[in-house]
Fold this sequence. Notes:
Distance between the termini: 86 Å
Number of strands: 15
Strand order of the largest sheet: 5-4-3-2-1-13-12-9-6
Strand content: 5-15%
Shape: globular
Radius of gyration: 24 Å
Oligomer: single chain
Mean pLDDT: 90
Amino acid sequence: xxxxxxxxxxxxxxxxxxxxxxxxxxxxxxxxxxxxxxxxxxxxxxxxxxxxxxxxxxxxxxxxxxxxxxxxxxxxxxxxxxxxxxxxxxxxxxxxxxxxxxxxxxxxxxxxxxxxxxxxxxxxxxxxxxxxxxxxxxxxxxxxxxxxxxxxxxxxxxxxxxxxxxxxxxxxxxxxxxxxxxxxxxxxxxxxxxxxxxxxxxxxxxxxxxxxxxxxxxxxxxxxxxxxxxxxxxxxxxxxxxxxxxxxxxxxxxxxxxxxxxxxxxxxxxxxxxxxxxxxxxxxxxxxxxxxxxxxxxxxxxxxxxxxxxxxxxxxxxxxxxxxxxxxxxxxxxxxxxxxxxxxxxxxxxxxxxxxxxxxxxxxxxxxxxxxxxxxxxxxxxxxxxxxxxxxxxxxxxxxxxxxxxxxxxxxxxxxxxxxxxxxxxxxxxxxxxxxxxxxxxxxxxxxxxxxxxxxxxxxxxxxxxxxxxxxxxxxxxxxxxxxxxxxxxxxxxx
Length: 495
């Protein structure tokens, strides 16, 4: 009898513990973006995740290198499906079956990847898409769910769809007035009902930074968890920060439509460190430390005291990410592109951030503007800058960004060096109409946030999937090519 009682108690305790782990109660969650010209090797990234207590990760696409590295790591994975696949998956269930077999079943069975969610699309109802994905999202969700069931994974892997906070609104300006946008009300209810029936959560992205960056009249202190802005009073509830107010607007919208108990995941929330005046180290550290403090304390919102799983955005900077939303898009990481620490964060229990180990770099040399160069011809300089910033990341030169205070020579040197590093320090990559020279002296301004980078040496990090790495890198460079940012940079620098 005593032994049976012990066994029962032990199994009960084990179940409770496993539920706590499944909900991420004992660790952090983050987004791992892979849009980099010189990506940190996946094995090093996974080690960095584990060293810093991240037990859940979201991938925006089924990246083979990332998924293989996550095998047998114990990290729970949410794997994403890009929006450009939604139409095919919505109209062809066999395409959904093939996608699940290739990107979910295989990695679970052969690589031991702990895939828990499939995120169908990413912010597909965003207003700026003008309804492009509205009619394909729900059918794609249905077909992926059917494919998971066919693969025998219906219980293990749940379907969700990450949505932007612009899918709900409040006519009163208060959380209690929350409702879904009228133009997508029917689609939202269909999706929520289907996910609820199949045990899947809703996923939403909330960005206090964007609220501040987009509105010059937005009260800055209300964007932070420790802010001193005047509180927003909504009946018996008082809100001291925009995150809680935004989240509870969503909860109200769910309650009004009969889904008050619907599980919710915060798929993205964070603060960038560069690209605009508000995107800086000080603000990012303040916001993310406040966010982590809430996660550690298991603090929810006024309407939902039990907190949701929160995926920090992002883990590492992505220098090849599209900057259509703004130049800050490449600077969301709590770590730099190479896994080095941007700013300290207290992770609770006296634990601090730990930097990546075992990273190999290109030689310590930089391409800068020659002291003998003639800068009087603006056309020559503009042509050289255009070449450099078309293929490399010059977002740190944006107005208000970390390197925006450089003079003409400094601007040119930064652009030249970014191109030189992006092209793996090839000899012909530091040839800009006779204006440039290679130096062994670090040109980064002293006591400044502006840093002249040296890239990761990809040649020293042998990869098993070299065949897939090359085309992906070309794709990322093409993203830079089509970016309209180059025009604003040249105009601002050469006006």
